[in-house]
Each structure stands twice: as structure tokens, then as C-alpha cells.
Amino acid sequence: MSVRSTITSQFQQVAVEQERVLSPLSDELKLVHSGLDSLSFAIIVARLEDSLGIDPFNSTEAVEFPVTFGDFVRLYENFAK
Amino acid sequence: MPSDGLSLLDSIHARGAPSGQLRGTLGTVALADLPRATAFGEALEKLRGRSVLLAARDQLSAALSLLELDGVARRMVLCTPDLKPEHLPGVIRTAEVDACVRDEGSAPAQEIGIAEAVPVRPGLAPLRAPRRRTATTEWILLTSGTTGAPKLVLHTLASLTHALAGQPPPEQPVTWSTFYDIRRYGGLQIFLRAVHLGSLVLSDPREAVGEFFDRVAAAGVTHISGTPSHWRKALMSGLTARIQPGYVRLSGEIPDQAVLDGLKAAYPKAIVAHAFASTEAGVAFEVRDGRAGFPVTLVGAPGAAVELKVSEETLRIRSGGTAQRYLGEGAEALRGPDGFVDTGDRVEERDGRYYFLGRRGGIINVGGLKVYPEEVEAVINSHPWVRLSLVRPRRNPITGAVVAAEVVLREPQAGEDRPAPELLVREVTERCRQRLAAHKVPAMIRIVPSLEISPSGKLVRPGA
What pLDDT, on the 0 to 100 scale, is given for residue B237? Predict the structure, then answer.
């Protein structure tokens, strides 16, 4: 599975678990409008660390906090390279 | 029980000639023989008036040391077998140790660094001179923090036996056993009960549950104690049917309903009781109704032998069973100005009962919201396939931490098929979601073959 599809499926799964209505995922979607709360994001990041083996937020380099879903995916894609 | 001015041996014999025995893996000793026999050969007098480190590894040797040195030594320092070598010099300095009792299992004398080292054997030889009580011996217990140096807690025989006072003698001979080491508070309580009221079968850390239970069964044990972790391990062994105790006691950790129910199912005729005690606060109460938590009526009862109060959601205890103080220069106060000991255990009232939430220091902070690991573990452990779980914080860039859980499953019984792990993880997660706020639900659940239990019989909590 690609990084993008792994992230997409985690967003969908956590939304179901947390009983949140997830907005249609597009690169332009602002994360604040995604329908997910901070606990949901916390769970997504933790699970992505397990499935992708990376945590870009914990890197030694400064991380620009993602604003859109596209930013979020790129952060992981760039870190995975 | 022991009034002031009696040594432990005097106090036992004050009730009439004892018929009981101490049974270890290396030997058996009759309590009736002790006034005229010794485990120290000719060396008992070398320990008079000294601050003695009890460094014997064997439990029977430790038991005989306690019986013989109370009233003789100035101090007894009850050295737990898992005390890390790097902490030993601090213990020796703080307790002003000037002698030690050792056996073949002890660290070499030069490592202990005490000139006067007296060997003790798990057996008796004739004692030439009559016993004399010349001291009110201080009993120094070490707290079992999993990290950091242990604290030294000062008790006397009177404070240690406070919970036994006024107990009527049992109608039938009582034979106790305990998973605990008797040099820990929980085990020491059982040791003191047993030597006053009957016999004791001592455990051995090298022994498997099955071997221990075989010795327990052979000795006809009627009363047996351990931590919830000890008991979960016993339940997981599938060997509980080897013993038939009439009384099963849990202490030292918060028991959840699942372990109480598990023991009640294993021992339907037994009293399954859980007791609350700590090295500093002493024994507070015992609950026998088979339910987790304790009735609110125990709190604030005026004139009770043990007074309980809840302040800042934390249980506090005042009684003659609390320790006197911590040993050492500049040590913190063990009791508050009002004499109450803060247990650090947080409680919450629900429907006329207090339930333990967990240790004050063990809180997981999920985005500013508190999670007590024990509260989540209790829900996980209520799943019929779960035997044991550990809830811990997992660092997280969004909320600071999220809740993660590790789960040990029970073995299927004959004719039973265990559902697939993924299905069980989903079921456990669903159960947590139904019963807990969202931030308390584990973000990830991992099934593991086992979880580490510390030498003190408690679940090892990382960073605890």
C-alpha cells in the first residue's frame, strides 16, 4: 500500500471508531474541517508510526505543521523517502 | 497481640505453647523448639544491640532471624532479595548497619562491606544461654519502588501487629501461605499472623507455581495470600485446583472484579478477601463481599481502630499500624500534621462504594485529560478472554500522549476455540468504548504472550 492510501484508510477507520463524520478527503481539505478532533489525529499519528514505521513529528528537523490533508500526506511521503 | 515489653517470641508463647511450623524449601522448623534452639549457632550474642542487615536469601532463614532478633538487635533491616547492589551502601549508611546476617545465597561479605557477618542456617541447634530481651527492636522495611533508591520505613513490632490486635484465636488450626516474600510488608503481615495463630508455608522465587501449590497442598494450607498479579499468574497456570484453601487474600495492588470473580470461580467455597495496606500506612481494611472497591461506611467512622479519610480524592489512613517515620537525615515526613498517612491512591465514589482509580503519580495525560491506567485495565480485564493487561502512555505529538494497551489472553479450556486475535482486539476496544470516555480508550491494543511481574509480585509499570 502506498503512503497515501495507508493514510487515507487510517483517516477513514479512525473516523468510524470515533464516530466522526469525515469530510471527503482531498488535498485541499483543511484538517480543521475534516470532521476529526485532536484525539482522532493523535490516534492516526500513533497508528501510522506503527504501520509506516515513521513519525515525522518526532524528527530532529523542524516540522511545518500540516494544514491541509495534502500537507499531511506530503509530510509522510517526504519523510518516508 | 504483643503488648509493649514482649519480644516476638514471647508474644507467640504468651498464647500458649505454639503447635505451628515454618516450612521452607530447605527445611521445617517447629515454633515450639525456638525458645531453646537457635539458627545462629554460637553467634546470636554478637548481634545484641546491633543494627543488623538481614541479608539471608532463604526465606526460612529470614523468618528465623526475625523471630530470634526481635528484642535482641537494636534494629533489623529487612533486606529484600531483589535489592539492587547499587542501593545497598545507601541502605547500610542510612540504617547505621553494623552487622549482618547472611547465608549461602547472600552477596559475598566483602561486597556487603560489613565486618560482623553472622551466618544463619534454615535449621536449629541447641541454644546454650536463655533468651533475654534487651531492646525494643526497630523493624526497618524497604519500599519497593521499581526505580530509584528504596525508602527505609521504621516500624515496631507493635505497629506491625496492630491489625492482629483483638483477633480471637481461630477455632481450627490455621496454616497460612503467601506468594509474597515475608520481607515485604504484605508478606510480613502474613508471617506475623501465621506465627501467632498457626503455621506458615514459605514461598521460593525459584519455584514454579505448580511446585509451590504441591507444597501448599501437602501442608494443608487453609489461608493463602498474594497480589492480584500473583493470582492472575496462578489462574493462568491452570493449576489452581491443586489447592483447596478456605480463605484467599489479595493485597498490594488494586484488585479488579475479573480477578476476584476468577478466584471465586476457582475456589467457590472459599472466602475471597482483598485487603488494603501499604508499608507506610499499615493495614487499613479487608473487604470480603467479593466486590472490587470498598464501602463508603469505612471512611470517616469515628473511633475506629483504623481511621480513613478521603482528601483531594486520595485515601489517607491513621492508625496504630502506620509506620513511625522514614529513616535518614532530611527524609520527608511520613505522616501529615494530623497523623494521617497519604497513600497516594486515588479513589472515586460510585453508588455507596469507593473504587480505586490508580496511583496519583501514574496518570496518563491525554491532551490535558486524565487517564488512570488501572481504570482502563479493569475494563479490558473484564473481557472473558483477557487474563491480564497493562495500560501505558505512548508519547504523541498531538495530545502529548495516547493510551496504549498490552493484553495477555487466557488459555482456551478443553473444547473451546479462541477467537482470532484481530476479533478479540476489536471486541476489547468496543468494550472500552462502551464504558469509558473516548480519551481513555486505548488507541492501540497489542496481544502479548506475557507481561513482566516484579519480584514484589506487582505488574511492572514503565517509569513507575
Answer: 82
C-alpha cell at position B311: 482528601
Q: Are residues B106 and B41 part of one domain?
A: yes
In this structure, is residue B320 part of a structural domain?
yes
DSSP B105-136: TSPPHHHHT-S-EEE--SS-EE-SSPP-----
Whole-model pTM: value is: 0.83
ipTM of predicted complex: 0.90
Nearest Cα of chain A lies from the Cα of B256 at a distance, in angstroms, of: 26
Range of the structural domain that residue B438 is part of: 363-447
pLDDT digits over A38-58, tens only?
899 999 999 999 999 988 887
Domain with A57 in it: what CATH number?
1.10.1200.10
Question: Within 13 Å and on the Cβ side, how many CA atoms surround B294?
Answer: 21
Nearest residue of chain A to residue B401 (CA atoms): A42
Chain B CB contacts of A60 below 8 Å: none
pLDDT tens per residue across span B361-385: 888 989 888 899 999 999 999 999 9
C-beta of residue B210 within 8 angstroms of C-beta of residue B237:
yes
Q: How many CB pairs under 8 A join A and B?
A: 41
Are A45 and B439 a contacting pair at CB < 8 A?
Answer: no
Grid coordinates representing B84 are 539492587
